[in-house]
Amino acid sequence: MRVMAQIAMVMNLDKCIGCHTCSVTCKQTWTNRTGVEYAWFNNVETKPGVGYPRRYEDQEHWKGGWMLDRRGRLVLRSGGRAKRLLSLFSNPDLPSIEDYYEPVTYDYDNLVNAPAGKDMPVARPRSALTGEPTAITWGANWEDGLGGAPENAGGDPNLTGAWAEKVKFEFEQTFLFHLPRLCEHCLNPACVSACPSGALYKRVEDGIVLVDQDRCRGWRMCVTACPYKKVYVNHVTGKAEKCTFCFPRIEAGQPTVCSETCVGRLRYLGLLLYDADRVGEAAATPDEKDLLDAQRGVFLDPRDPDVIAAARGAGIPEDWLAAARRSPVYDLVVRYEVALPLHPEYRTLPMVWYVPPLSPVLDAVDAAGGNQDDPDHVFAAVTRLRIPLEYLAELFSAGDADVVAGVLMKLTALRSYMRERALGEDGDEAVLKAVGLTAREATDLHRLLAVAKYEDRYVVPAAHKEDAAALTAMEERCPVESSGEPAEAGGRRVMLGIPTLRRTTTGGHA
Amino acid sequence: MNAAFLSPPAAAAVSGTDLLLWVAVPYVCLSVFVVGHVWRYRQDQFGWTTRTSQLLEHRWLRWGSPLFHLGAFMVIAGHVVGLAVPGSWTEAVGISEHAYHTTAVWAGSVAGVAMIAGLGMLCARRLLNRTVRLGTDRSDKLLFPLLSATVLLGITATAAHNVFGAGYDYRSTVSVWFRGLFVLQPQPEAMIGAPLLFQLHALTAFLLFAAWPFTRLVHVWSAPVGYLVRPYLVYRRRAAPSAAPGRRRSVSGSR
After folding, report:
1. Across the interface, which of B55, B236, B240 has its CB nearest the CB of A204?
2. Domain boundaries, chain B
3. What is the ipTM for the molecules in this complex?
4. How far apart are CA A280 and CA A348, in angstroms?
5. pLDDT tens per residue across span A239-274
6. Cα(A368)–Cα(A381) distance, integer angstroms
7. Could you tell me whether strands A104-106 and A231-234 are parallel, antiparallel, or unpaired per DSSP bridges?
8. Contact residues, chain A, for B138 at CB < 8 Å
9. Bridge partner residues of A267 (DSSP)
């Protein structure tokens, strides 16, 4: 047993209102620079929808993640080592900027400099790549709230199989939910494995996957290998950039920016202890549908004396072990098993998990003429939700609808029980028992999911004092230093948060 | 040192210009090449990259880049054989002068044409595609013309003298001069009689060596062959104090 700690995230999708505050604050923190205009370390997708970049979940096309070869060995879907080196000159599976979108800025100058005239001046969009006027035809969030769904959402790669016929995009027949996505900081990261330079790495202490900007040589294999398409090429520096899990904040014991600013309070951060020796074996589980259990099997119980002893032996400090015992992520993922990974079939063992959305279930009971307080009626309604279980199963359980149904029934039972309690009744523990919860556990889970206090959602132990010298060294550099263009000697640069690099028309330096 | 290895082809008068062109310029360029690389490697790890533009344009690159790179590998291999291996060595292992030249001309032509075609496509996309053109920095504006000139002069010299011409045995002149530079016994006289195209090709090549450390060509030295034997997963401890230098400014990042 080789114990490692990982800071992991769970998102409760029932609470996501799709406000994009996480995306915007993340962008302002990390990617408001030239070269990464199109990069969204965190984005929020409307599901069903094609996602960002377009149809990124179609691994037959994009070749992301891992698969098993004929002999059952784990191999990168984009090919082995030799093939990777042969595709260095031109990577056949790299998304182009059209698969993301053409980043734009606006001609704000015109608002103040336009000559007097009859019409209000407008700020026309200009391509951030060419500086020329352009038409905006796609974006990172083009399909928000099912915008354009009748034309586009049918392209969602998850809509396969006969059941997909049931998914309609007509008003009053459709469904949607929001899916916030960021780097999964996988246990078995394909991007790290594909990097020819060895510039991508997983940190031993907290499992955060980072790009060493000084070692990246721009071979762009990580972009292809990541099945979630969460590594981006900075087209000015020619280097890969990705979500950092806000490591400077995590090291200080603070939640990531996306978590901190989440108005729906749906994100949870906490430690998971795992056995690094079992990662490869779990990722190579033959049946895709067993991957969820295999990954849960890699996680270690932070209360188990053997685990604690092994963790101490591995140098994990006591306060981290204490934090692991209080981890909301451990509770949601392992203890209550209400959180599920996104696309476990990619075999990367992702570490950002999701509590699947349940919202319209009580409406569904009413619509079916059932009694909201009768657990049988409620459980039956779960299978008739407007969001087909099969769709959620494609996302969260490699197509196993029973897994998703189990989680949704657990949440339904919890809701039903706590509703009775809130109305002053005793609550029917038989409902809880049916889903394997005790009254005490139900109260705890309810507190975690519904009350969701800040200190319960984020249990982030600070990095250790012993490492203070290393941390100080990190602080000496600014992680969001302006890219590309060095400041002109004597000239003062005005940072406007819009690209100056490409703007040749408005004076200044080209 | 083997006398045959360095035998001067003819005793010719060596002028000051010849000394400048065939001794001073090469040594200055090679010094810049070496010192420049050391400096760039130590100062500018952040700028040490291929500067890929595949994200912005991939249709031309799909063909141009593999053609150019594979052609370049063959051309470089051909130069190593042609310049570093004396004719007496190849004859010693039973390869006649005629056989050698026939092979060299054929293989060299294929490689050269592939390299020219690839480089042409890469230059074309750089000039014609607006996003790529705007992403072209000062070092590229030096590198692309210099590289193109070197390659074009090289293939023109081969075509003019060895494909369509009477045949020119550069192994007894250019190669002798080239080897002389590296054993610190420069023989400028070996180069005096060489045809103008070969002389120009040699000069632009040395200028290219001088420019090398300051351009994207440095990515050549990062060819990731170690990837073939490395374990897939890379774990690292949080940066140790000594391994966290302040980020330096990119050398070629300005435009």
Report:
1. B236
2. 13-51+173-221
3. 0.85
4. 10
5. 999 999 999 999 999 999 999 999 999 999 999 999
6. 8
7. unpaired
8. none
9. A11
